[in-house]
Amino acid sequence: MKNTMLGLFRRAVRPVACDTAALGTGAVALRMPDGAAVPPGCVGVVADQGGSTRRLAEGERIVLACHESAFCFHPGPYTVDLLPYAAAPELGLRFSFAVDSPDPRITQQRFDLYLMSEAGDGVPVCGFGAAIEAALQHELALGNMDLPPCTSLDEWNTFRAALNQLCYMRFGVTIEDCVPVDLGERVDYAALLLARAVQAPPDAAAIEPEPIGASVSIDTCERDAPALRRLFLELPGVMCALRLSVLPAGQGQFRQHQALLQRLDQVSLSVATMPTLDLSAPSQSLDRHRQRERARETVRACAALDEAWALLARLQRAPAEQIDALFAEADRIVANLEYHCQARRLALLESEET
Q1: Predicted TM-score (pTM) of this structure
Q2: So where are the chain's domains?
Q3: What are the residue ranges of helices labelled H in the chain?
Q4: Is 21-73 CATH 1.10.10?
């Protein structure tokens, strides 16, 4: 009787035609309208505002409730060329990746979370490759991964395992193949030298930390809402991954582990109750300069979030003797999240208070 009543009141959805020809070639994922069907060979993902997702098989009709959105993605594989070191544009990696198959142990797949928080209207292959490249360059620059010249087979296997773990934890994809390639024929060295010659040296005090893969051309205030959305949706995922990825060996590690989880929970609560960008108090607007300062703190917190995902990837493959050092690194990352989220909540600048 219950199923019959649900059928009587179910909303009729008219089939919608949607151009999905780019899926599997130029696009990894595309946003789908209500009423469209999941294309052959693809997977549908429906998400609500609270972060919950469900998957649809190929051929199923997408029926969206209020405040829901849908994507379709093709699992691949896809091939892109990555530059591990920006200063050596002739040294590249030919990188093939695929969206990982569903993990039955978890309720929400990492790639589904990526679609919800970062996809926008779609995920082009070139843009996704650029995000992977930025994450790789960031980890190499910090020394968390190593790709030395004349790499031995053991060093290469270690690097590839670390890269695979980073891609799985950060983006929800796995490596199909990864080989070194010479990209020298594609590099216009004269243009690179000319660009360096005319580029003014940056002011060290003016450099702002940017989230991995983000475009610097977007106005700072316009980046506040997407960054807050990422924090709101991804911080629970970070807590869940931290809870599952580490098994503390002793009482001290157990207390550190629990303290980190409690602090992350408080940061998540702070993000969920964050004031709007343009108000300093109810019915009191905030000027554009202060809004920009608030937005910068959101961007900095988002950069710390990217570091948290990368640290979780290292925790997956770390030996027991390195756990204490990684916990110290986690303490630094959580402290940055706490600081920037608290600074985002403040309406006044320090310069004006003094």
Answers
A1: 0.79
A2: 21-73, 78-187, 219-353
A3: 2-9, 110-118, 125-142, 153-171, 189-198, 224-245, 251-272, 288-317, 323-345, 350-353
A4: no
The Cα 208–Cα 305 span in angstroms is: 16
DSSP string of 37-54, one letter each residue: BPPTT-EEEEEETTS-EE
Which of 85-94, 230-239, 276-285 reaches the highest mean pLDDT? 230-239
Distance CA 318, CA 305 (A): 20
Q: Tokens 């983006």 belong to which residue?
A: 171
Mean pLDDT of 210-227: 61
Burial of 305 (0-12, 13-18, 19+ CB in 10 A): buried
Tokens, residue 227: 């960054």
Count of positions (residues) in the chain: 354
Whether cis (ω within 30° of 0) applies to the bond prior to 275 is no
Determine the Cα–Cα distance for residues 237 and 120; give it in Å rounded to an integer: 19
Q: Which of 330, 82, 28 is nearest to 213 (CA)?
A: 82
- The answer to whether the 21-73 and 78-187 domains have the same CATH topology is no
In Å, how far from its chain's centre is CA 77? Answer: 20
Cβ pair 95, 80 in contact under 8 A: yes
174 Cβ partners below 8 Å, 6+ apart? 97, 98, 100, 164, 167, 168
The candidate with the shortest Cα–Cα distance to 23, out of 55, 71, 88, 59, is 71
CATH number (1.10.3470, 3.30.479, 3.90.25, 3.40.1000) of 78-187 reads: 3.30.479
The tens digit of pLDDT for each residue in 147-156 reads 887 788 888 8
In 3D space, the residue among 95, 116, 278 whose CA is nearest the CA of residue 180 turns out to be 95
For residue 198, the number of C-alpha atoms closer than 13 Å in the C-beta half-sphere is 5
Handedness of CA 309, 314, 317, 319 (dihedral sign): negative
Distance of CA 144 to the CA centre of its chain: 18
Tens of pLDDT, residues 174-191 = 888 888 888 777 766 677
Structure-block tokens of residue 3? 């199923």
